[in-house]
Each structure stands twice: as C-alpha cells, then as structure tokens.
Specification:
The protein is about 0% helix and about 45% strand. It has about 240 residues and is an all-beta fold.
Length: about 240
C-alpha cells in the first residue's frame, strides 16, 4: 500500500471526529481537578440519539490556520456510525465509518481510503487521545465514558485514560481528559453547541443545526472503484 491519508486532519482539523484551539485556556473555565480513579466502560450516548442523523456547522482554528466545515453524523447503532465532512460549498472532504471493530476512512480530495482498527486514533484530528467509539458522544454533548452521571465524576476508561466531568441540573457542562496530571483535551457545551480544545493550541467549535430520523438500514460506506488504498496516519491508543 502507498500514500498517506491525511484529509481529516484539516477538519477536526474530528473525525473524528479530530479538534482545533485558540489556546489551552481559550476562555474556558478551569478543568476539573483529578481525584481517585474508578474503572468504567466505553463511550456513552444521549438518550434517543441512535437512529438519528445530525448536521453540524463547525469552525476550527490552530497552528495551521482556520476554517469552516459541515459535519453529518449518522448514528445507526451504538457501535455503528458514519461521520462525513464537507466544505462550505458542500464539496465532500472525507468520510469515516465505524461498525463494531471495522473502521474505514475515505479521503475524497485525494481519492484514497484506508482501514483502521478501533483501538487507533488519528493525530491529525487532534483527537488521538479519544477512542473512535467516543466521537459521536463528543459531538452530541455526552460524557465520553458510559455509565457516568454528575454532578461531578472522575473515572478511568478501558484505555487507562482519566476523565473528569461536571453536570448542572442534570446536563453535562464540561469534561476534561488528563495526561500525566495535566489537562490534554477539554470540552464545554450547552444545548446544541460545543467547544473542544487541545493543549497543543487547537480548537473546534460546532453547533448542531438539524436533527432528523435516519433511514433504517444504513448501508456500508461505499468506496469509489477508482480510489486507491493508502496508509492511515494514526497513533495507537493509549
């Protein structure tokens, strides 16, 4: 196989999902201080999210510049989703599909595609610390670890990563992913809006603009016959 698939890096620069920042501070409230960890499971999802299609308007900013894009999340099942990105003119940039352990990333600008393992993250998304399974939860404003409720939480996921979160009136308002005792990635949100920041100076902001029922039986992501198979630029978790 030849080549390197880098299209999503310009999105989030995420997917995943992804996620660019003005600064680590970025005007956000201080992260929740970590405490004693507790074991827990995989990513959680908002109630009723399965079977929906969500459209987002997003902007990002980071060392490589700034831009805007549109995201479409199709959540067919807890372990099956498709995330697609397009530019302001509606031109496809990339598509990411995860179904159980099968993950495919298609770069429409380079006419390339690659296959990922679910235990991999994508550095160019600035979400290499976040499992691909958690990207829908992040975009939909849910805590990335399942079975956790507020008003405050401090947990360790299956990858050994520490997450802290805060809730207000039963609604998640912020969470932080820690590394070596320091905040690495943090999120704040309210309603349909969210802001994801990375310690390396990148930020992604998004707003969900449309929610509709997803047609049953989401078909497997089709790869055009003339697309070449390439190498994904990935990092192994954790």
């Amino acid at each position: 196989m030849t080549g390197s698939l880098r299209g999503p890096g310009r999105l989030l620069a995420l997917a995943a999902l992804g996620a660019l920042s003005l600064s680590c501070g970025g005007g956000l409230a201080p992260p929740v201080a970590p405490g004693p960890p507790a074991a827990t499971g995989a990513a959680g999802l908002p109630e009723g999210a399965v079977g929906q299609q969500s459209l987002f308007r997003a902007t990002y900013e980071g060392p490589e510049g700034r831009g805007a894009l549109r995201l479409t999340l199709r959540l067919a099942a807890p372990d099956h989703y498709r995330l697609s990105a397009s530019d302001g003119f509606g031109r496809a940039i990339w598509s990411l599909e995860r179904e159980a352990a099968r993950v495919v990333l298609v770069d429409h600008r380079r006419s390339s595609w690659c296959s990922l393992g679910d235990s991999l993250g994508m550095p160019e998304l600035s979400l290499s610390e976040i499992p691909l399974s958690a990207i829908p939860a992040v975009l939909l404003g849910a805590f990335p670890v399942a079975g956790v409720a507020g008003p405050e939480a401090d947990v360790v996921d299956a990858f050994g990563r520490r997450w802290t979160g805060r809730w207000r009136d039963g609604r998640l308002t912020s969470w932080t992913l820690w590394r070596d005792g320091e905040p690495m990635v943090w999120w704040q949100g309210a309603g349909a809006e969210g802001t994801l920041s990375h310690r390396q100076g990148m930020q992604l902001r998004w707003r969900r603009t449309v929610v509709e029922e997803l047609d049953p039986g989401l078909e497997v992501l089709e790869i055009p016959a003339d697309y070449r198979e390439g190498l994904c630029d990935v990092a192994r978790l954790p």
